[in-house]
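We emphasize that the prediction below concerns an isolated chain of 291 residues; any contacts that depend on oligomerization or on bound cofactors are therefore not represented. The input was used exactly as deposited, without trimming of termini.
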Amino acid sequence: MKFRILFFLILLLSITSCSNDDKDCMENPINTTSLEREYGCTNTKNSLEVELTDDFTVIRNQADFTNQVSGNCIPDIDFTTYDLIVGKKGLTSGNSSIDYQFTDDCRTGEYVLKVIFNQNIATVAPNITYHRLIPKLPEGKEIKVLTEVKNAEINCELFDPAFPLLFIRLVDSSGNNLIDNKTIDPTNINVEGDFSNADFEFVPADEFANPDADIRALDNSLNLFLPNEATFQYVIHLDDLDKTIKVDFTAELTKIPCDLSYFKPIEGSYNDETLELKEVPPLQFVAVLEI
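Result of the prediction step, given as a C-alpha cell string:
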C-alpha cells in the first residue's frame, strides 16, 4: 500500500513538473530579413521564380540558389550568415502584402516560418513567390512553413473577377507567325471541339501597344473558347494549308471568392509533345503551335 501511494506521488510530481515546463516553454521569435533589404532587389513576390507549386525549399549555398531561382535580381548571398527559405503560393485574388513570423518551437525543436498573405479584391489569381533570409542553421535542422491567407472583405454584388482566356499562335519552324506573314488567312480557319460551343475569335495585332509589351504575345493569335471541363480537345482546320491539327488541353479547377470558380488551362499537347502555356497577366494563357 505504501508503495502504491509513493508511486502515485512520484507520478503526480512528474506530471506537475512537465506542466510547468510546458508553461515555461515559449515560441522564441527570431529576426529575419529579405533580398529587398539586404541586396536591393525589388518586387520579388512577382519577379522571383522558383520551380515549385504551393511548396517551399531551403537553400543553403550560392550554387543551389543560382540553379533553382531565376529573376531580375540574383545577388551573391552571404550564405555563411544566412539560409534562404523560398516558396510559391497560388492565390485567388490580388495580394497587398506578405507578413512573416519566424520562431523556434521549443516543444518540437522545429523552426517555424509563418507566412501571412494579406489579400485585396483585385480580380487576379497570382502565383506569389515568398522568401525569407534566416540566420544560418545547423545542418539537418527541421524547418516548417505554415501559410495563412487573409482575404479582404468583398461585396459579391460588385465583384467582377477576371476569368482565364486561352490563345494559340500558329508559327513555322523558324518561329514566324503564319497569320502575320499572310500564309494563313484567319477567315479560312474552322474549329471543332469535344464539347459544345467550341469556337474562336481572331486577335489582330495591337498597333498601339509597346513593341516589347507582354501583350504583344497575343498579336495575330486565336482566342479559343474555354469549356468548364478539366480536359478538352480542339480540332483546328487550316484550309489554306489543307491541314487539320488536334490539340488537347488540361485545366484545373480554381475557386475564387463569392462561391465562384473556373477551370484554368495549365498544359497542352500537340503531336505527342507537351505545349507550354505562357501566362500574359491577368489569366491570359498562350500556346505556340509549330505547324
